[in-house]
Records
---
Amino acid sequence: MIYNAPIKDMLFLLNECFGLDTVRALPGNEEVDTDLLETILEEAGKFCSTELLTINQAGDEHGAVHADGAVTTPPGFKEAYAKFVENGWTGIDSNPEHGGQGLPKVLHVLIDEMLGATNLSFKLYAELSRGAYHLLDHTASDEIRARYLPNMVAGTWSGTMCLTEPHCGTDLGLLTTKAVPADNGSYRISGAKIFITSGDHDLTENILHLVIARIAGAPLGTHGISLFLVPKFLVNDDGSLGERNGVTTASIEHKMGIRGSATCALNFEEATGYLIGEKNRGMAAMFKMMNIERITVGMQGLGFSEIAYQNALAYALDRHQSKAPAPRPDDSKASDPIVYQPEVKRQLLTMRAQIEGARALAVYTAMHADIMEKSSDKKAANDAKDLVALLTPVIKAFFTDLGMSSTLSAQQIYGGHGFVREHGMEQLVRDCRITPIYEGTNEVQALDLVARKLTGSTGEFADRFFAEWLAFAKKNKDAAATTAMQHLIEATAWFRERHESDDAAVRGAATQYLRLFALAIIGCMWTKSVAAMKNQEGGFYAAKRKVARFYAEQVLPETGSLLATITGGDAALADFEITDFSD
Amino acid sequence: MIYNAPIKDMLFLLNECFGLDTVRALPGNEEVDTDLLETILEEAGKFCSTELLTINQAGDEHGAVHADGAVTTPPGFKEAYAKFVENGWTGIDSNPEHGGQGLPKVLHVLIDEMLGATNLSFKLYAELSRGAYHLLDHTASDEIRARYLPNMVAGTWSGTMCLTEPHCGTDLGLLTTKAVPADNGSYRISGAKIFITSGDHDLTENILHLVIARIAGAPLGTHGISLFLVPKFLVNDDGSLGERNGVTTASIEHKMGIRGSATCALNFEEATGYLIGEKNRGMAAMFKMMNIERITVGMQGLGFSEIAYQNALAYALDRHQSKAPAPRPDDSKASDPIVYQPEVKRQLLTMRAQIEGARALAVYTAMHADIMEKSSDKKAANDAKDLVALLTPVIKAFFTDLGMSSTLSAQQIYGGHGFVREHGMEQLVRDCRITPIYEGTNEVQALDLVARKLTGSTGEFADRFFAEWLAFAKKNKDAAATTAMQHLIEATAWFRERHESDDAAVRGAATQYLRLFALAIIGCMWTKSVAAMKNQEGGFYAAKRKVARFYAEQVLPETGSLLATITGGDAALADFEITDFSD
């Protein structure tokens, strides 16, 4: 397997397509410039394509192991994690107050892409920890922040998010884990959690579990859920590790993929927990962080797409089979590289056109995440917040769907060699397969988009947002993007008409709408990319213009049929009763 | 995992939708009637959902094992194979002359669906054998047929197809395996073959390899390839097994799925081989059988879709999570079964609508395969041959793509529980993944369709075929199917204009065209199904009408965007040069 971090394209997006001015103008970002970002991206790319990619296949073969009550990570993970910590990657976007580097999100999403591409199992140990860090940094008391966060930034302690229980995943309101107040202001947490990523492992000295539970007497449903910090080892007043807390690892899951990642079933038995934020407000705090985490998961999908594309291209350039259509590259040969087969070229271009467009959308969204967090301009920060809220489910779902279609397509280009394990293509498919499922399934993302993001203030923002990009596409005479945006606006109107009156219709067309949304807005990202290239000539720009054209002519037409299925078909769905399934 | 063979739907197609008259009128089919077919389908369904399904998961876990030069099948496979033989399943469509039952193909494709659904790894041991049997029955001399075939029908000997070599899969013209004439009229075969399904195993006493090789001095390319029978054990004149032939198992592949199936690398070292058919005509003989095998692979994809659908439906009826849109099934509950979520219902209906429509197409095509083989009416037999030739690549590619989309969708409905191994959903995805790859990748099918089946006599037949189904859709006032057929005819015209002038454009739009073809013709199968129900009332018919409507309104609109990408975009593909990939 090869991986070359797509730094050229990343820098094009940062410097030329969107520009760094807005991000640099934010407080704390004074030192952020092209040179700094380029250096960091190159270092990250090097780390990923050497340290992480090389242990990825063995990680899959050995898997994480649960024995004698402890979890061991696969060979090489400990050494790689030590270097990861040493190089400062655990604190890159953390608060300088806790020893972090406070670098912008727009940089971090690109690093997320690289980590996701080269070793998702490894990445997850750090990723969930980072999510837990930000959640604590936003929500916990000063005392807890001071006591726990520096060690998280330093990478010596890590964190988890404990949400799912055997009977509830999507619907966390059903959870039964209990919290009983103890004398000293802490709580006793009891219950069973499943699917806890990095729930136990041997990479850090302590693990800080962020657990949602119901305090005795709290209301049912999501409004009775509180958030607790439950360390694996209790922490003494001097910061040293104390006794083992009442949390044990019951088992780890045997999974289709990301087998190097320990997915744990954890039992909490009167474990000591500390309330984080307000009572019964745990879901709100958790969701705030889950939203950022959802973009991160989207970047995993993009990373899988990129590494799948790179390897499929390399294979297609190397594998000779059958003759190309005339004019052949070399008439004297018995066969040509399969990349000359138009169908193989199509598959590669379909990946590339979506990958580059999606990356532009990621950079655009992450820049707004930075504005949302740091801008002193209230209006700008608020608009950015709406933009991020609107695009988060689109990025999570579309990018991970793209991860699946790209890894499957790359595997297909390898033919039978893609089905055997040695080339690693089948591992990409298996590892990527979790991304459309976790952090809220892609169907849940679509429901979030149509039910929450098209309504209220984000809904008002959406209208402005669509109108602006439609105008931009028109101004740049991009007929395909213009049509796609018109389809999006028309589909949005269909939902608006039904929000109050027909919940089932709204929910039933959600995934189609999310896909239409993503295709159309990525169409505009291509308009923007092409406009940003101005009259620049040369290989990179010339190729990118051709990819843009391919996207417009070969990918975007799907919005037409999506619109037709959305606006034409709710009756066919509604008409079919659940009892009809048994006939 | 559950599996209930969809016999009700199968019988509807056989008895009501298409009727058995034509098949019964064929010589040798005098005893074929509804009762007989129903009895056999029920027996097959019982065998599959008990004997085969129960050993499928262990087959995946243990896999086939290669040690000390021999291959061992997973636990339970030997016992199941003994029952399979005992019940006569190895000879169901074989020639009565060799002890077979000579039952029609239309029955066998439905059994193929069941076998594919419940245990593809097991099925492959018998399936390749059956392919080899038919190839020998069509092509070999009377002497060879008499000597080898009765044991194949009895299931005590099995067969393989040895085509692929390390450097050639799709392009077999590049093969290097050599055949040197020996004194006694036999040949000495030497070379390395890979990806040989059931290349070695412990289920039968002998294995008959059908090997393609080049006789010393034969032309390069596919016109210099001959076909040989190379038994694992030579057969004495009295029919007893003689010495071991010069074929050894170098290794078996470690694969993403169908791990219970032994995929072998075989070395032939001066092995004794017998020429089958004429010198240098091996590919033609092989392809004749591969076409039937391609329909069989399509049925595997359909089987995967069906079992994925059944289990996802059962899970969705059982798993309570979140509230359904009003009116809820039970307002007193905290949550409802997820099948009430419109998006889950949509995914299930999307599977079902395609599965039932595809099954209709399979029955329709298989009936024509019977006519092609047995009809004494030359014109009817010839038309049937064209019909089967035209639809074979469509069935192979679309059905296996459907297998992937259905297994992935079913896994998605299970959420995180679909990603862990215990529920078996992830195994379905892994096992199904080979079907779009082997027996000619789906891209090769699409090329076959546009390059060979839209031209010449099959091309002329295609025009009549499209016109007839368009007229049928119109007559039945099926607007959606009418539009889809018009799209298909328009797209076909686009190819016709370019067949001579623009090979690259033809090849580059082939997969889109195959998908459009499949969607449109399955639309007509739904027209036919609905028409066949006449005024029949009751659950089965009422549900089927609703599924038909869902297909028309929610699945068929895709033909519009497919037509747009076909007719609108060859320049975007052509414009991108191979060298642009490196920019």
---
Amino acid sequence: MEKCAPVLSACMQRMKGIQDALDILNGKWKIRIMAALTFGPKRFVDLQMIIEGIGPKMLSKELQLLELNGLVRREVVDNKPVGVNYVITEYGLTLETVIKELSHWGNTHRIQVMGKV
Amino acid sequence: MEKCAPVLSACMQRMKGIQDALDILNGKWKIRIMAALTFGPKRFVDLQMIIEGIGPKMLSKELQLLELNGLVRREVVDNKPVGVNYVITEYGLTLETVIKELSHWGNTHRIQVMGKV
């Protein structure tokens, strides 16, 4: 990290933070799943519908990893038939600012680059 | 996107933004490269040093893609020997908030989960 000048420690700190965040949010799906869950609990099939292109195996795997990291929890819903909701945890909600900023940037990028709303 | 309730359009808008942002920042390296460049222009070898684990082929490819998307530009430096700096563009700097927030989250996550600073 020698060349992280001119503000070495701030740069190293930022790089370390990015590394740790991406270790958790790696891949193309986790941020999308978290983004969908910021709008309230969702069933598995809802998530599949909202997150374009994700297959059931991948969704299942990603949800498990997010659960392991304490960002998402399963909630059994006593309907008939009994169902499961995926809910963002309080800790998962600490990602909301990142998600909002990223989405805002993406929307602005699309308008700027492609002229589409 | 039928199940993006309760606030359908806001949810769709957020998902679209995330999708577009990740289309540009896909993979495990681009955000790291942009983060390093928020601390000033860097030579290729500097970037390789700062971004742990990236190989020269991958770094070269990723820089080209970032350049294509207008987030990074090359700047020839009239040293002896002549060198090239990679510089974040004004447009690239619009990502700074996202990068700061993500890094802040990663640092907080590490402290919370692993108890390490």
---
Amino acid sequence: MPSYKAPVEEVLFLLRDVFPIQRYNNLPGFAEATPDVVEAIVSEAAKLCEETLQPLNQTGDRAGCVRNKDGSVATPQGFKEAYRAFVEGGWVGLAADPDYGGQGLPFTLAAIVDEFASSANMAFAMYPGLSQGALAVLLTHGTGAQKTMFVPKLISGDWSGTMNLTESHCGTDLGLLKTKAVPNGDGSYAIFGEKIFISAGEHDLAENIIHLVLARIEGAPAGVKGISLFVVPKILIEADGSLGPANKVTCGAIEHKMGIHANATCVMNYDGAKGWLVGEPHRGLAAMFVMMNEARLGVAIQGLAISEVAYQNAAAYAKERLQGRALSGPKYPEKPADPIIVHPDVRRSLMTIRAFNDAARALAIWTALKSDIAHRSKDKTEVRAAADSLGLLTPVLKGVLTDVGFDNTVKAQQVLGGHGYIEEWGMEQFVRDARITMIYEGANGIQALDLVGRKLPKDGGRAMMGFLGEVKFFVKDNEADASLAPYLLGLEQGLAHLERATMWFMQNAIAKPENAGAGSYDYMHLLGLVALGYMWAQIAKAAIASKAAGNGDAAMEAKLLTGKYFMERIMPETSAHLARISAGAGTMMALPAEQF
Amino acid sequence: MPSYKAPVEEVLFLLRDVFPIQRYNNLPGFAEATPDVVEAIVSEAAKLCEETLQPLNQTGDRAGCVRNKDGSVATPQGFKEAYRAFVEGGWVGLAADPDYGGQGLPFTLAAIVDEFASSANMAFAMYPGLSQGALAVLLTHGTGAQKTMFVPKLISGDWSGTMNLTESHCGTDLGLLKTKAVPNGDGSYAIFGEKIFISAGEHDLAENIIHLVLARIEGAPAGVKGISLFVVPKILIEADGSLGPANKVTCGAIEHKMGIHANATCVMNYDGAKGWLVGEPHRGLAAMFVMMNEARLGVAIQGLAISEVAYQNAAAYAKERLQGRALSGPKYPEKPADPIIVHPDVRRSLMTIRAFNDAARALAIWTALKSDIAHRSKDKTEVRAAADSLGLLTPVLKGVLTDVGFDNTVKAQQVLGGHGYIEEWGMEQFVRDARITMIYEGANGIQALDLVGRKLPKDGGRAMMGFLGEVKFFVKDNEADASLAPYLLGLEQGLAHLERATMWFMQNAIAKPENAGAGSYDYMHLLGLVALGYMWAQIAKAAIASKAAGNGDAAMEAKLLTGKYFMERIMPETSAHLARISAGAGTMMALPAEQF
């Protein structure tokens, strides 16, 4: 059975030495996050995830969710109690607005807890996770009455939330959606239609489920400009806030899918369900985007989370499994064979995964801090710069952390050989669970298109220039430090490729947008590598300083080696990305469709 | 439900225009393989695979195999009838020795049929597939009596075969194996022990199952030099060839695994089962290697096969699914949206898969032809050269065709978005099934080590020099042809990287073998890319000639574009492989085991 230990020390090192969060004490919620408080929160979260959520991961996968004949859905055994423990610990509202019962702590801390929970039990973590998106939308676009009605209960976890976008004929292209909203005359609407792929659409963990639903008001214009957003509770709420009769929304079926079996993926039938408009009519997509950006970061963290737990189990196996002898001669002559961690190729897999995980965790925290600044700072320049970075990097994190995270689960599974393929060992579940992260909340190809088609050209390329400037400044600022040279050299190489690729788009994609589309995926990964390399350079700097201060030598040395590995073996991929981008769309688009 | 159409035209083009098999008419079995015969065989195989095997693929995955209380194993519904059809068609013995009832046709044809069957239903194809390895071992190392007793029944498919190597504490390191063989005094042995991960170890398709089992004769030396090979029938055979009483070998359990649910992966208990030595005592590993090389090529073909069927279904979806508009403006303004094949990033995935599949199929056929020459030619020089290529390329095909094949199933699944994650659509089964190919018959890391540690240095590097010489000769021989330039240029670039990597090993790995281990995986993929690139250059040459002759213009043009795509977008990966190889083992080996 697989195990999990939350990377508490790792996270504290990042918050203390790499991105000292004390720097942000002027932001609401940060002054309260003193080192002691942070350590207590992270340790408590680790305990809950290790002891309560993780033991249900494998049993939850096997049991799956069951839809009863009346349309209700039963989650696997133990999930109800775990959900109680989770919400009673106040974890849903960790970073939420104190005016509605939240703790108002940094979003960055919530992102860390999110990683732990997703490592321990991704299918479980999705239930409270989906409430976060609903909360964000209601707090940003809801009326005062809507906030009062829904937000405190979502924060307390008594109720949970969902996002209802996809229909069977439209996922990416929401302009095609058909779900209809008919005014009831009392300010509410009757919603008709069928939504598919609704995660946590129905379950038995919360008293009520608050659906946020995209639909078209009768007579609205076609396409994306006729889509509105509605809040539709599973159970109607009386004037006094108590639960009333059931609304006309039911779960018609749950999907049989590759993984995340313990999270119900529902077909939701809206049969005149009562809903209320959130935000302006026909402006639903914009309102929903608030939710999607949060959600994308959450999915990126899932990619990292599964990569981390898969790594831990592969490393443990590699240290125990005896097979063959080291190429340099037996390391444990008294044993029948050496542990397989002596073999270079096994180390290659493990080093590749950890070189990603450490930097991906840093990048997630770095991005979460940008989100905190963007949403909490009063300094307009600071807000603008942070929002730029957040907007630019969100699709990159979603695409890269889930793509590489998935690849890493496959690598980790491989370390176990045949045992990796057997259910009992749990590695194949990580692969199956991780696979969805590349698909949902916008398939990764869409992230790449969002990056290249929207985020990159926005405001004359301001966000990208800001990011490049920040990385260059770091390099220049540290180039006198010889001990950092191996890290800066690799980073500069990647940066040069990224600049050439950006230039190539400027010269070739304006007249022919297909050139941007054809290079978008490689560009997303190229930018991701540079961002991860930038994290490594910062980690290395902090590790060198920490070593010099006489702290945790062995752990710091391990970081320096892992970062060096990243520069030697992962960063060189940037050249292939550049070559592919520069190849353009010609060959790719030339083949007639019928030849495929 | 997924569908499958065997690539008959593609295969005939390869056998006719790219590697004209008429060239080998001097070899036994080739003269009989006239163009008409080849076309008839390939078409018949296609029909059987499309109409009989493929419809059982998804139902077989859902039902899985069931072990009854008595240890017998039931295959999914329809498998018995399909197996009958398969063996009655003579497919097991297509290339087998006519002296024992085989048809003696080229092994190359059998490899092609193997691809079709594995695309249609990989779990099914493994049952007759495993008989091939048993046949090869018995024909090479068996006594006359053993051949007479077992071979005709294996060829007819009345009986099937297995390979029993792995034990719970040893997979890769067979030197640790404990299964014991005690002489019975009558020339037979009593076998005691437990084997795990035995594919097709027990089932209801054949009257008898012939296990080939590695075990240690009592008192044998420890390690690999004390391992012998035994043939152990499930049911004992009487002197007259009829079936006698059950032998003492039973299936103790079947594994619950990620995929290939319809193929029983068994724990086999040997409780004094009667077995007979095959080959010399203590020389079992060498004898088993005959089987493993065959099997590795078979697994490589599985990687291609799943990649092919996944491609077909992704391409069909991409041509039908309407979502969004082409970046260059609507292609089908009368429809609510364009089919997603207009989007560059969807094409990127599909082109990447087909650029691999076409070349991988060529490489499988090229290698199978080498096998035919190595086993059937009377010309010693020719045999030596062919055996060199076969030995060198077998681990490369196993490692690269299964790694990339798996990645391609993931890419194909991604084209379907959320539908790719749902069981109903069948794409996730391809991913789950393909995953095992990277693990069994020697995990791919072992293939890389076999390549770099054994095949590369063997005979002073003769095989590698032969391969490099062949590719260089082709380039030189065709460099005057300007229409081939885009293909030769890419190939030469890859070749230069391969030569530098080879040189790096010569200079750095002899004194420090860990440098070879650390670079082995990248070297395997680098060599694979060059081999695939060499195939594309040959395909391009044949396509240009075929176009000039006025044949199948559109199809030939599609090949030329796909090959160009390979050179533009896949070949550039060779530079990252070279960079990683040249990084050496230093950083990778420096991290103490306890830091993982």
---
Amino acid sequence: MSFAKVLLCLDTDTQPSVFDAVVAVDAGVDQLLRHGGVEPDDVRNLVYGAMFTRGPADLNNTAVFIGGTDVATGEELLAGVRKCFVEPMRVSVMLDSNGANTTAAAAVLSAKKHVPLSGTNVTVLAATGSVGRRVVRLLAREGAMVCVASRQVERALQVCDEVRKVVPNAKLVPWMTDDEESVGEALVVATVVIAAGAPAVELLPDKRRRQCDPLKVAIDLNAMPPSGLGGIQPQDKAVERDGQICYGAIGVGGTKMKLHKAALRRLFEANDLVLDAEEIYELGKTI
Amino acid sequence: MSFAKVLLCLDTDTQPSVFDAVVAVDAGVDQLLRHGGVEPDDVRNLVYGAMFTRGPADLNNTAVFIGGTDVATGEELLAGVRKCFVEPMRVSVMLDSNGANTTAAAAVLSAKKHVPLSGTNVTVLAATGSVGRRVVRLLAREGAMVCVASRQVERALQVCDEVRKVVPNAKLVPWMTDDEESVGEALVVATVVIAAGAPAVELLPDKRRRQCDPLKVAIDLNAMPPSGLGGIQPQDKAVERDGQICYGAIGVGGTKMKLHKAALRRLFEANDLVLDAEEIYELGKTI
Amino acid sequence: MSFAKVLLCLDTDTQPSVFDAVVAVDAGVDQLLRHGGVEPDDVRNLVYGAMFTRGPADLNNTAVFIGGTDVATGEELLAGVRKCFVEPMRVSVMLDSNGANTTAAAAVLSAKKHVPLSGTNVTVLAATGSVGRRVVRLLAREGAMVCVASRQVERALQVCDEVRKVVPNAKLVPWMTDDEESVGEALVVATVVIAAGAPAVELLPDKRRRQCDPLKVAIDLNAMPPSGLGGIQPQDKAVERDGQICYGAIGVGGTKMKLHKAALRRLFEANDLVLDAEEIYELGKTI
């Protein structure tokens, strides 16, 4: 008997993500079991249903995807899913709440195409959001010297502490960036900048960006004008501007989409995978 | 790569329509993404998920269906869907809340099989409900002289005003029908009558219907006995009774179902269609 | 035209069962229409959607499954579904809230493999839960002499009354079992015991079980240690222990799963089946 590929989608939003559903269909999932408004207490019963319906040798055909706009609750759901497993009964699971994991992985992979990351100075603007924190984590693991910039230095410090817990030898500098001047200072020695700010908020004016002499790669993840990094267009994909290799949100988005589909396909190759930011990033290196 | 046909179903009822789902499956949809309790504020995020997951050349494989018993909110959802589009990124969409569009189109198409509509006197009973209003609109576009009958003349006037906004040269007469006598008067010169009343409410007794001399076609859309037009059976499909060609709700229902499926199939032939009453009616002329 | 197999899942829990969904996929259902938080008032509209979308000759391709943890409300939903039917328009329906029907049927079928049930003394421990009550019903129909044991004798009496309404010649003895001693007494003449108690509650210690001389078959439906019947392991499937043929929850579970799938497949062979405990049990005899 051949088994249909079943993806259990646990979404923290009342209306579960249509984006994630269509991507799953296009990645070859046969049956979507979509659940909206999922709370941590719901996880056990739902995941047991995924675990105890097929034999252990066939459980690679069942997987779990965690999505929704609330990344913190998504992380709680993932912790809940892991607690359900009773070896050898388990299923593979992927976390991509708010697209944060695939976006962060795609951004860092885009930078890595152009410069080696180990020992390189990288500044992450708006580093304390769900995407920014993951970008810092991935860069720290690659051995980059990361300037962790935020309007609130306490939050930057908190991200540094968090990341050091999982990457003990991380090289991180918290930085307060509350005006154009301080953003510029955060970029004085940076070879790479990744801006993970809110939609339609300019973090660095075009003129100022052009003055950043050591800057080789500039990546902006904001799709709504004005750009986070002045002068970068959302469609930019390795476009050279003023001697800098530039990426906009849509330019990174193509890689993000490929990663998302590849990670979904990977879920069905084994029944013991946990695909969080790091695993998705590593997978991205192979495609 | 070939794309699965994905239909995003936005339903205003808490439990989304099973009727609409089964019809979609039978019309060839591969993947249903069903959402219940959808409110206007939910639309953008859901429709963006449908728009931004496939390239513009493949978006004819993704479409939106709006259903549920609340037709007014369904119309709001349709307005919301149209606002989402950013050319060339858009998907086709069909509105059929409460089956009102397909029912109205099927009723008018049934009449049109037997008499030309342009210049013909047609009386619509219970013309101010969601089906009745659409029947009036479609008849007005065909150039019929429409007697818009309702128990409350203010509501009949309101429907006339509404229809004139979209069909400026509409020939409409509002009519108050609050008893057998006034319903009879509304039919004095009618060649066609379409009764769009509530279930199990008789609008015109059998005896009175038989006295309507110029009447050639009598269509009743109420499936629950007693009939809206006395003497007509729900199963009637072009049955001659007393020199009148008669249709009951189930008789019209066969055409309605064909239209519903044809419209769903049409959705997947292009990515820029908006199928409201008029478009569904025009489609019906071709099948 | 060939029709996709559509299963309308009416679940009383807010998040509909993933277990039931995966089993349905593996039983060959093409399209699941899953509804959570279903209340008795929702049934008519949902089931009408299943009934009035395909012709009577094709309605064997549409079926209804009722699930969820609340068995009493599941029974109400089933009653509501039956009321919807208007011959020849109807669809087949299966009730398996909380897995109670398939579990009870699998337990009784397991016993029947080893001893004839007619005239045999069978003790059901924790007989007043949703599984226990069904076990009693099935045994009564087979002509067994059933000792209906419960901590509260009033509840045991109530189950006896209930079962006599549907099996008038049932041979039932209510029994109060509020300590080890009284449980032992309930087993003095039993050839078979079926324990349908709560998870992780021991009803009969190992030592005491071994002292039950006439006991030939011991079946425990509790999967969480400690076992309901001391000394039985969840994986036991016709394992001989101390001269008794023993089954644990997982041992019975294999048969339960086969029954669940067989019943789902049966649903699509006709459009007029109602699969409750008895019909599922009879189906089990043929596989």
